[in-house]
Specification:
Length: about 210
C-alpha cells in the first residue's frame, strides 16, 4: 500500500457546524489518509462522528485513522495514530491486527522514528516544521532531519505543523510522503474551496 499525498486531520473547533460537509469536500479533492482528532471526553459524540467518517472514507476509498484511541479504532476496524505519551505500539498492533495502519508521532527525533519502525509502525510523523495553530509549543523539526530520515527509514514519512500550499514543496523535495494538514485545508470559506485546496496539495506531489 502506497502512503503518499494529503493527510487531512480534523479539528472539532475549526469544523464546528460544518464537520461532515467539509470532510467530504476534502475527500472529494483526494485524501490519502484522514485522521479523526478529537480530544474531548464526549465518547458518544466521538463514536458517532468516527462512524460517520468511516462510512465516508469507505465511499471515497480513503483510509481512516483515529488519533490516540486504539480501542475506538479497534471498534471501527480502522487505523490509529499514537503520540509519544501513548506507550509502545506493540499493544495497539496486537489489538488492531496486521492490516491496520498505525502511525507514530516522532517530533523532531530520528531515534523515536527508528524505535517506532522496530515496533511495527506503518508510517512516522515528524513536526512541527512551521508555526502551528494546533501545537504552538511543539519542538521544531528541520529539512536536515527529513534528509536523514529518508536515508535511514524504509517507512513513509508524514510531516506536520503549520504546513501550507506555499511552504510544502521543500518538505516533499526532502522526502516527505504525507503532508498532514489541518488549518490550511479546513479554514476555507466554502466546501468548494476545501476541495480546491485538497487538489492543490496533491498536485504538489505530482510536480516534485
Amino acid at each position: 500500500m502506497k502512503l503518499r499525498g494529503l493527510y487531512a486531520i480534523t479539528d472539532s473547533q475549526l469544523l464546528a457546524g460544518k464537520f461532515l460537509p467539509y470532510v467530504e469536500a476534502a475527500l472529494d479533492g483526494g485524501v490519502t489518509l484522514l485522521q479523526y482528532r478529537d480530544k474531548s471526553s464526549d465518547e458518544a459524540r466521538r463514536l458517532r462522528e468516527a462512524e460517520a467518517l468511516r462510512d465516508l472514507c469507505e465511499r471515497y476509498k480513503t483510509r481512516l485513522i483515529i488519533n490516540d484511541d486504539a480501542e475506538l479504532a479497534a471498534r471501527l476496524g480502522v487505523g490509529v495514530h499514537l503520540g509519544q505519551t501513548d506507550g509502545p505500539l506493540t499493544p495497539a498492533r496486537t489489538l488492531l491486527g496486521r492490516q491496520a495502519i498505525i502511525g507514530a508521532t516522532c517530533h523532531g527525533q530520528l531515534e523515536l522514528a527508528e524505535r517506532a519502525a522496530r515496533e511495527g509502525a506503518d508510517y512516522v510523523a515528524f513536526g512541527r516544521f512551521f508555526n502551528s495553530n494546533t501545537k504552538p509549543g511543539a519542538p521544531t523539526a528541520s529539512l536536515e532531519l527529513l534528509d536523514q530520515a529518508r536515508a535511514q527509514l524504509k517507512l513513509p514519512i508524514a510531516v506536520i505543523g503549520g504546513i501550507t500550499l506555499d511552504n510544502a514543496r521543500p518538505l516533499i523535495e526532502h522526502g516527505a510522503d504525507l503532508l498532514a494538514v489541518i488549518h490550511a485545508l479546513f479554514s476555507a470559506d466554502s466546501t468548494q474551496e476545501v476541495t480546491r485546496r485538497a487538489r492543490a496539495f496533491n498536485a504538489l506531489f505530482e510536480s516534485v
